Amino acid sequence: MSKQAGSVGIVQAQRMRFETPLPMSNGQHFGPYELAYETYGTLNADKSNAVLICHALNASHHVAGVYADDPKNLGWWDNMIGPGKPVDTDRFFVVGVNNLGSCFGSTGPHSISPLTGKPYGPDFPVVTVEDWVNAQARLADGLGIERFAAVMGGSLGGMQALAWSYLYPQRLAHSVVIASAPKLSAQNIAFNEVARRAITTDPQFHGGRFYDHGVVPARGLEVARMIGHITYLSDDVMAEKFGRALKNARYSFSLTDVDFEIESYLRYQGEKFAGYFDANTYLLITRALDYYDPARDHGHHLAKALEKATAQFLLVSFTTDWRFAPERSREIVQALLANRRKVTYAEVDAPHGHDAFLLEDPQYMAVVKSYFERIAQSIAPSAGAAAQARAAQAGAA
Amino acid sequence: MSKQAGSVGIVQAQRMRFETPLPMSNGQHFGPYELAYETYGTLNADKSNAVLICHALNASHHVAGVYADDPKNLGWWDNMIGPGKPVDTDRFFVVGVNNLGSCFGSTGPHSISPLTGKPYGPDFPVVTVEDWVNAQARLADGLGIERFAAVMGGSLGGMQALAWSYLYPQRLAHSVVIASAPKLSAQNIAFNEVARRAITTDPQFHGGRFYDHGVVPARGLEVARMIGHITYLSDDVMAEKFGRALKNARYSFSLTDVDFEIESYLRYQGEKFAGYFDANTYLLITRALDYYDPARDHGHHLAKALEKATAQFLLVSFTTDWRFAPERSREIVQALLANRRKVTYAEVDAPHGHDAFLLEDPQYMAVVKSYFERIAQSIAPSAGAAAQARAAQAGAA
User: Fold this and answer.
1) Of A40, A204, A275, A330, whose CA is between 20 and 30 Å from A264?
2) How far apart are CA B297 and CA A190, in angstroms?
3) B50 DSSP β-pair partners
4) What pLDDT, in 10s, does the model give residues B47-99?
5) Could A183 and B244 be called an inter-chain contact, meaning their C-beta atoms sit closer than 8 Å?
6) CB pairs under 8 A between A and B
7) How far is it, in rounded angstroms, from Cα A313 to Cα A164?
């Protein structure tokens, strides 16, 4: 690939409305609802080059490019997706979707319930990874995509990519699961629970009906985000980026002032997050993480849970990720190998912890790029054959 | 040692009052003040068998035994200290002290300020590890102890034992530093900062003057304790103790109910803690942890900072401790060896994470026991010689 990698440029969010209620894991049928999504690149004639990108906790359908009216709002995986990038939009038709229950455009707890005329709040159903995948499959139907060339995600998004493989084995050729896990550990759940308690015990949470009070449980959200942030970064990268660096030359001898750079950074991240993220969405998404456990209905045998999967797999983990450590990816690899699936696994030596999946590590980018080049080649023959056939016909005419 | 290890039995807390203000690291002179303490065993004639025990965040002077009126309130290191135990009270005179600023009997933020007639609250000075050691040295003066056979502590208590070695090199023969670190990492500080933010942003904190409002920032304290608890346990022991075990057979599909045992455990620990611990003390003690960094005034050379230390050292770390990992103890060991100090270092293979220093691991107990037997032997000769001399005199008479 000698061409210069570029940006998809100006993009536009779209919305699709679904009138038929969606059967949910909690037993409810939820709907009507809307999903926000974006697409980049061009769907080929036989609709075989579509790639679905699934997002994690704090992301959305805005995966690449910028908005005309918000040129600084770069898609969250813009380093990964674009012309000449690992997921090359000159070859692939990429779909980003905002999940049900999120707060960036799809129907969520902040949306107005047609039953009450007020925001759903705590009445919004507790969604699961499988619910999201079912909703995404309906979006694919709406877009006329029968089968994805790949479904791809990192962290919680990786869980969705994995769930696609056994829920809709016929509908994807490749599953790309990055920095993910087949289920949360007790420690993972513990961090989620502390974050939830910070939110739900904030007096401004009002049992999830804070919209009706015109307030936001900002204190709880701030603390929740700070906790999350610690788990996204490796101890090493925190040491390197912040260490014990001080804001001022001397200790403040104060209990509320900022002394250390790391304090300042975390407060800033927490406050920023509290300014735009919906508290109920935070609760929903952490619960979806807790609940994800495909082996649970199969006697806790992950291989059994993945038996139906027929896709080929790329798994990537990062050595310093202590939220979803490489061992967790290896569990998935083992379960897939037990089912004799084709699996490529890369353990990338990166210093950035869990966050590495969002960052531009050369080895990581190279692995994904070469994997998607292989996918592109497997698509090309029929498209190429069709083009040759057309050329031959033209020549004969 | 064939004798049965036992308890020190019924103990009584005592208090010592200090009229002369203590020069503090923040520049203030603080006092008068009181320190709560307990002693077990008997101080020998030449006062050479005294052992000082320094406590960590959530502990006190109540190190061993029980109170007559509270027989379930067992000292926090009762498994370590008592007749026949690793720190054998048949041989040693053990002193437990509650640090200045704590909430278990010594003068702290909850105490009435003589200046205002109200609790100190946020006016209580920000104390440091060195301040605590200076206060402990005055307690030793009051008890007539010129030189400790050993100063010992775990975690933050280990920092105090280390600080004794360079602040008062002539006043201790041995420093016993368990599960500790020469300074906090950025990640350690980050966890402290989140805990502090949870407390200080609780509306019931009232800028630290919650006493005047008759309330307690319980929500903040609860979240702070939950965060702390996660860092005390290893991922492995959490997995083993709780895993993904559910309270009920099915998921609740609720965002506020408890689904997982680990959630229930953390909430219980958080609520219990909020019921007895002082929020200002929590802030003070985490700040003392953040600030501790003896190398800071020595060009960040730990060996230089420890140059004055003449004691012999025992350091113990635990393989699964990710709060103060073995590497952190090894930094201290290296710095001491660079100064040609006598150091015994044990890295104990224990599954319990940071909490291991409080638990009864056989290898850990054996290491401490044999180390203190060596200390006892180094004390015995002179005492033995004195006894022999007395016996010889008696025989001659």
Assistant:
1) A204
2) 38
3) B93
4) 999 999 999 999 999 999 999 999 999 999 999 999 999 999 999 999 999 99
5) yes
6) 156
7) 12
Q: Is A253 an 8 Å CB contact of chain B?
A: yes
CB contact under 8 A, B262 and A190: yes
A125 at the B interface (CB within 8 A)? yes
Backbone φ and ψ of A129, nearest 5°: -55, -40
Residue B127: name the closest of B292, B276, B277 by CA: B292
**Distance, CA of B221 to CA of B278 (rounded, Å):** 8
pLDDT digits (tens, 9 = 90+) for A351-393: 999 999 999 999 999 999 999 999 999 996 554 444 444 445 5
Q: Looking at the partner chain, which of A185, A243, A253 has a beta carbon nearest the beta carbon of B239?
A: A185
Q: What is the ipTM of this complex?
A: 0.92
State the Cα–Cα distance between residues B57 and B374, nearest whole angstrom.
29
Residue B2 pLDDT greater than 50, yes or no = no
Burial grade of B173 (CB within 10 A; 0-12, 13-18, 19 or more): middle
Distance from CA of A229 to the nearest CA of B (A): 9
- B283 to A183: CB separation less than 8 angstroms, yes or no: no
Helices (H), chain A: 129-143, 156-167, 186-200, 218-232, 235-241, 261-276, 279-291, 302-305, 326-338, 362-396
The answer to whether the CB atoms of B219 and A202 lie below 8 A apart is yes
Q: Which of B27, B239, B255 sits opposite A122 (nearest CB)?
A: B255
What is the residue whose two structure tokens read 């029929």? A382
Residues of chain B with C-beta less than 8 angstroms from the C-beta of A259: 290-291
Q: For residue range A182-233, what is the model confidence (pLDDT) as tens digits?
A: 999 999 999 999 999 999 999 999 999 999 999 999 999 999 999 999 999 9
CA A327 to CA A330: how far, in whole Å?
5
- The SS3 of residue B263 is helix
Active-site annotation holds for B321: yes
